[in-house]
């Protein structure tokens, strides 16, 4: 049975217990849960009831990318997922996604997802974006990130090829990583909402929009030549 490592970066998030509850309700049994406390000063007491069932690591505040990299260094699973501490998994997220990946021999996949509000109520259903051909995926990803990181599952060995998250990118480390991955691997999509993505006023995308815009430009510039080369290769097929 394949083992799945779920990495949960945590920084002052009041919803951490809901994220953990959603992981412990998974129908797939062979998982390890790694919580990285990235220098939190609030809400860490909500983790206490779960300490005997998780791998818990405390570190100084270094941002989500550094927390993910710390989790990767401790992960022993064949497959890796990440869950933000304000989001939640569907109960069959791991089971269904892993089954799909094993069936298709996928190295990287992401899923459809719902939006929820502060109270956990669904506000928008099934808003995931997918393009049916590799060429379309490459072209659209060169314009911007449409992959929700918490819906992703990938083989751990992928990181051996593409490296770890760029810790100099506080908010767009995921976009940079997905570009590195899609330049070398096929992208698989599961059109089933397996993630609940929470919108609230304290989320990073709300508070740091200006910085994120600058980072996106930086990531696009860094990948411009390599992604265009892959697009040209795909067009020549």
Automatic annotation (TrEMBL):
InterPro entries: Glyco_trans_2-like, Nucleotide-diphossugar_trans. It comes from Priestia flexa. GO terms for molecular function: hexosyltransferase activity. The keyword Transferase applies. Pfam families: Glycos_transf_2. PANTHER family: GLYCOSYLTRANSFERASE, UDP-GLCNAC:BETAGAL BETA-1,3-N-ACETYLGLUCOSAMINYLTRANSFERASE-LIKE PROTEIN 1. Residues 5-162 form the Glycosyltransferase 2-like domain. Coiled coil: none annotated. This is Glycosyltransferase. The keyword Acyltransferase does not apply. Keywords: Transferase. Belongs to the glycosyltransferase 2 family.
């Amino acid at each position: 049975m394949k083992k799945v490592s779920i990495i949960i970066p945590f920084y002052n998030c009041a919803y951490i217990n809901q994220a953990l509850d959603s992981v412990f309700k998974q129908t797939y049994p062979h998982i390890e849960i790694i919580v990285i406390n990235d220098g939190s000063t609030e809400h860490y007491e909500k983790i206490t009831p779960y300490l005997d069932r998780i791998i818990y690591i405390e570190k100084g505040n270094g941002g989500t990318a550094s927390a993910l990299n710390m989790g990767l260094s401790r992960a022993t699973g064949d497959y890796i997922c990440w869950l933000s501490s304000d989001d939640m998994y569907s109960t069959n997220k791991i089971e269904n996604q892993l089954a799909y990946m094993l069936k298709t021999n996928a190295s990287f996949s992401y899923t459809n997802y719902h939006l929820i509000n502060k109270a956990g109520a669904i506000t928008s259903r099934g808003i995931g974006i997918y393009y049916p051909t590799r060429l379309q995926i490459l072209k659209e990803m060169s314009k911007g990130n449409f992959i929700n990181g918490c819906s992703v599952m990938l083989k751990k060995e992928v990181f051996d090829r593409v490296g770890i998250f760029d810790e100099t990118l506080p908010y767009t480390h995921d976009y940079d990583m997905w570009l590195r991955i899609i330049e070398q691997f096929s992208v698989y999509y599961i059109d089933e909402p397996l993630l609940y993505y929470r919108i609230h006023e304290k989320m990073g995308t709300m508070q740091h929009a200006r910085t994120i815009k600058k980072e996106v430009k930086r990531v696009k510039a860094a990948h411009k030549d390599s992604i265009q080369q892959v697009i040209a290769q795909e067009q020549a097929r």
